[in-house]
Amino acid sequence: MTGGTAPPARFGRYLAVEELGAGAMGRVYRAHDPLIDRTVAVKTIRADLLEPEDRPEFLERFRTEVRAAGRCAHPAIVGVYDFADDADPPYIVMEFVQGRALSAILRELRGNPSGRGAALPTLTRAMLQVLDGLGAAHALGVVHRDIKPGNIMVTPQGLPKIADFGIARLGLSALTAAGGVVGTPSYMAPEQAMGHPVDHRIDLFAVAAMLYEIQLGRPPFAAPSLAETLLRLTAPEPAELGVLAGTTLGAVLARGLAKDRDFRFASAADFAGALGTALADGVLPDEATRVLAPTAPPLAVFDPGLIDRLRVDLASRLGPLAVTLLRRAVATSASEEELLRACSAMIESAEERMAFLRLHAAAPAPPPPPAAATATAARTSPPTSIPTRSSASAAAPGFELSPATRAAAVQALAYVVGPLAKILVQKAAAQAATAPEFVGLLCAHATPAEAPALRRELEALF
Predict the structure, then answer these.
(1) CATH fold of 10-95
(2) 241 in helix, strand or coil?
(3) Is 146 a catalytic residue?
(4) Lowest-pLDDT range, 351-360, 368-377, 405-414?
(5) Which fold has domain 100-292?
(6) Alpha carbon distances (Å) from 59 to 50, 86, 452
(7) What is the tens place of the pLDDT at every residue in 373-416?
(8) Which listed residue (48, 85, 86, 146) is catalytic?
């Protein structure tokens, strides 16, 4: 028991026994179901911080998420038995797992390196079962989005159980600290960290990150600070494989942790197959090692004078991180237009972004031609400014989100992506020139099954 707070006497028919843990989303209790005579876990969800007008919408999401999680019946997934959305607080009744979180086991091994050798085989093979569970969920169109050691329970027999399917996606809005991002990026795929569209492969990247930590004692892109971790995660350099370099298991990790998701395993079954082969000390299929030498489109060679100007300008706006961010933008941009767009996205203020693009465009835009000459000029003259969404916004500003609309958009997207919603809404608002474009940018982060409902909810805001 965590101590301090006494548990409620009961949750509906479930009799509370003890508090097991607490977090930003709520509390977890061990409880007894007298009807079936079994021990269960009850997780309460903090809805008390919601504004009254936000509560109905949140509870609808709560119902949808719990039902989706309840469909994921698999031995490697914590089962969902029941829920109550009309209780105060709302709660979910789940399978009670006797065991420890993988995060606690890994912390213990870091403090006791001599015990790592004995634990490695069991923990490594547990990842095969995690992948099997994820494969079952993905087949139903359910993506976890927050796979990490803290969400993997390990029984005394060494069997893993994936917890919190759907629960993490309930959380930004009023249920988290204002402006904060819940969790760490240590197990987050690069596209998720950068706010790009995501699919089931973010779960597979997270499994590869956990497997890396099991083998080498730390997450693959861990750094002393959050900012440095994000830079390592989103930089083009692959994870360092250390003693696993050149081994079959190292090749599996390299593919699982590929920065470009198209070089990762396409499915949980593919990942599990390659990992199983590596653990049997066999030969991995040829495609498992392709990530070590991916073919990429040739990058542009930029004018050194432009790079110097960008470095000085960004340093005045962003401080010491500007050099690293610019280096990453140069390494991933195939044209000057793409480079300027990537650099402008680093600037928070829309007005400053517009000024930045005007300053660094290849040539200043000419004055508007007479109306009669417009069509002819459009057919015969090359563009003289960078044709990006940001420059369009600079020429014709007018798409502004009210604070209420912004908050509602964050809440709608949080249902799909969880704690990153606020960042993604901010980025989309900066890039979009119109409301439909803004809606389209946000819907790109949803799976095909989720996108129609998200689009309807967002369009209703305008």
Answers:
(1) Phosphorylase Kinase; domain 1 (3.30.200)
(2) coil
(3) yes
(4) 368-377
(5) Transferase(Phosphotransferase); domain 1 (1.10.510)
(6) 11, 9, 20
(7) 444 433 343 333 333 333 333 333 446 888 778 877 877 776 66
(8) 146
